[in-house]
């Protein structure tokens, strides 16, 4: 696997944050998005995506 083509964890985190902001989500409870882990961001995004489908 070529590591130059795989995004870094920070790039993945930044991408998720941008997607959430585009959906109008800026915080999870009292925490700002940049304070969350990638796993937490993925959970918030999955939940938001499900809510957008309803």
Automatic annotation (TrEMBL):
InterPro entries: Fur_reg_FbpA. This is Fur-regulated basic protein FbpA. The lineage of its organism: Bacteria, Bacillati, Bacillota, Bacilli, Bacillales. The gene is fbpA.
């Amino acid at each position: 696997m070529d590591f130059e083509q795989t995004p870094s964890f920070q790039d993945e985190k930044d991408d998720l944050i941008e997607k959430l902001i585009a959906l109008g989500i800026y915080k999870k409870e009292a925490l700002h998005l940049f304070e969350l882990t990638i796993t937490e961001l993925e959970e918030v995004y999955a939940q938001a995506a499900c809510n957008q489908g309803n």
